[in-house]
Design brief:
This protein has eight helices and 13 strands. By secondary structure, the protein is of the alpha/beta class. Helix 2 crosses helix 3.
């Protein structure tokens, strides 16, 4: 019975009042008392003795090599402490400015840059430290963003590069599950994507399009919008999380922006529901579970050497 699904229009009444009785449910939902009794019993089975099933961390928009080292150091410290069972890199993990169309015919902006060098440095600065600190058995996800898609666009323009410059051919992502750009990762009732929209009210647009609890990056700033349908009364959230990149990279030339350094800590319960927090990193410091983390100091000497 616990594998049965309660229809969303019925589940909405339990969300509004978890202790609703069968008589009231039958009246409000317009169903028979027998059906109401079944759903009340099913809801109790599914939502009794709920435990934390998974602890996860998700990050977006490292834009290596333009990443914030203090922010990344904070992340490594938090990983060491909470030992997540799920870790998500949400896309734009690498910037690939070397092949950006914005830098076309601007050789000074990419002077000394090489795709092979970018891969090598990403591995030593980011991938190896993460693999070293994440627990054995942690489910690791590597989402592609629009910046990773630059590789595909280059291959479309220069087919002779196929097989040479793809991410999976240049990074050791064994143990990582790869999700292509625009794919959505579903974990419990949570859905993760890199993000598509960057208009003023992007959270509203994202949750309206996806109609799910959707968490994303892409825009480098936090925003949330909660949508509730008059049909089922179930809340759905669109939540953008800030970035892990430098808030003032050299290519921005000191332009003002609304970027915020953040990552996400989330908890998935045994019934699929979830809780989450989005710690903000300010001046290289953040607070998680009441503990202060200072990313201005290296996590430890051996990891500092890996990222130099």
């Amino acid at each position: 019975m616990s594998d049965e699904r309660i229809p969303s229009h019925i589940l909405g009444f339990f969300v509004a009042n978890p202790r609703i009785g069968r008589d009231m449910l039958a009246k409000k939902a317009g169903i028979s008392n027998q059906e109401a009794r079944f759903y009340c019993k099913l809801f109790k089975i599914q939502h009794t003795d709920v435990k934390i099933k998974d602890v996860g961390i998700a990050i977006w928009d490292l834009h290596h090599p333009f990443y914030s080292k203090p922010c990344f150091n904070c992340l490594l410290q938090v990983i060491e402490d909470i030992k997540p069972s799920i870790f998500i890199m949400g896309g734009d993990n690498m910037d690939f400015n070397t092949i950006s169309t914005y830098n076309r015919n601007k050789p000074k902006l990419v002077e000394g840059s090489r795709i092979g060098k970018d891969y090598k440095n990403f591995a030593s600065d980011i991938l190896i430290p993460l693999n070293n600190v994440l627990s054995y058995g942690c489910d690791k996800y590597f989402l592609y963003g629009n910046h990773e898609e630059r590789i595909d666009r280059l291959i479309e323009a220069e087919p002779k590069l196929e097989g040479l410059i793809e991410i999976e051919n240049n990074l050791d992502l064994s143990g990582w599950t790869i999700k292509k750009y625009k794919d959505v990762l579903k974990l419990g009732h949570m859905h993760f994507s890199h993000g598509l929209y960057w208009n003023k009210y992007h959270a509203y647009k994202t949750v309206t399009i996806y109609q799910k609890n959707i968490f994303y990056g892409h825009v480098h700033n936090p925003q949330s919008y909660t949508s509730i349908s008059p049909i089922d009364s179930l809340p759905k959230q669109g939540v953008s999380v800030g970035c892990m990149c430098s808030l003032n990279p050299e290519y921005r030339k000191d332009e003002p922006n609304h970027w915020v350094n953040q990552f996400m800590v989330f908890y998935i319960m045994s019934d699929g529901t979830f809780r989450y927090d989005t710690p903000t990193v300010i001046y290289g410091r953040t607070i998680v579970n009441g503990k202060l983390y200072d990313g201005n100091e290296d996590v430890c000497d051996d990891k500092a050497e890996d990222s130099e």
